[in-house]
Design brief:
β6, α5 and β7 form a beta-alpha-beta unit. This protein starts with a strand and ends in an 8-residue tail after the last helix. α5 packs parallel to α10. It is α/β, with parallel strands linked by helices. Helices cover 30% and strands 19% of the residues.
């Protein structure tokens, strides 16, 4: 294992980790340079199992013993104390381990849909926290794929990956472009496109869940404005979650979890 001690936060060898709290910078830089940052040993290991190759690791002294034994010897392991880690990244690295990982090419939409019967479709979900939570629900509650409009946040941004607990690596995903015209691909692949909306004239979710559907795509809008009219018009069905106490709607991540539970695949023992 090639362990390199870092004592200067400006060391060019740890450039991948500089300014991790600068969202605008990371949005521009990470996709352009083909990298993303995984935080914590669990997430790092899940990224590796999903086929993402580490470029390097950056760890604190307490996490050095947890560096994988099977790590390629050509991958440098940078060791830094807490103060140096914070100076490099811009925050206190409580999990003590970061990895710069190589991105893999996005899977074509047709390939993602070919093996799916349940898909989650997000329009302009720009919050990395919400997107990470949505991926975790998709993975845990029986969805086969996640499709994203061009303006959606990056699933591989550090916060998305962390909030999902690495489940962004467990669900195939792709970008739908042009939007919303590309929603027609779902219909062509036999999906009923179900738009989640608080509109009172929409079908209640519990009613829809009793109907047999071979292929379903659940369409979710951004926090606040919800789905655009163009996306609603592209849907084949509109569905609402019945609300109480005058509450009009839920957070998009909570909506996704409820819809995935109601309409996703269920293990045979729980049917």
């Amino acid at each position: 294992m090639g362990i390199v001690e870092i004592i200067d936060p400006a060391d060019v060898r740890v450039r991948d980790y500089v300014g991790l709290t600068d969202v605008a910078l990371r949005r521009r830089r990470e996709p352009a340079e083909g990298l993303f940052i995984a935080e914590g040993e669990l997430v790092i290991e899940r990224a590796r199992r999903a086929g993402h190759r580490p470029r390097s690791l950056l760890v604190g002294p307490s996490k050095l013993a947890l560096v994988p034994d099977d790590l390629d010897p050509d991958v440098p392991v940078y060791l830094a104390g807490p103060d140096v880690l914070a100076a490099i990244t811009g925050f206190e690295v409580h999990r003590g381990a970061l990895a710069s990982m190589c991105r893999r090419p996005l899977i074509p939409v047709a390939d993602v849909l070919a093996g799916a019967s349940r898909a989650l479709v997000c329009e302009d979900v720009v919050s990395h926290t919400n997107l990470g939570a949505i991926f975790r629900s998709a993975a845990g509650l029986g969805m086969d794929a996640v499709l994203l409009s061009p303006r959606c946040a990056d699933p591989l941004y550090r916060r998305s990956v962390r909030v999902s607990m690495g489940e962004v690596f467990a669900v195939p995903y792709a970008r739908l472009d042009p939007w919303p015209a590309a929603l027609s691909l779902l219909v062509e692949h036999g999906f009923a496109v179900v738009a989640l909306t608080p509109s009172p004239d929409a079908v209640a979710l519990d009613e829809l869940s009793t109907r047999p559907h071979e292929k379903l795509a659940l369409l979710l809008g951004s926090e606040g404005p919800g789905l655009t009219q163009a996306a609603l018009d592209a849907a084949t069905t509109r569905v609402r979650i019945p609300m109480a106490n005058g509450v009009d709607s839920l957070n998009v991540a909570a909506t996704a979890a409820i819809a995935c539970y109601a309409l996703g695949h269920r293990p045979a023992a729980t049917r």
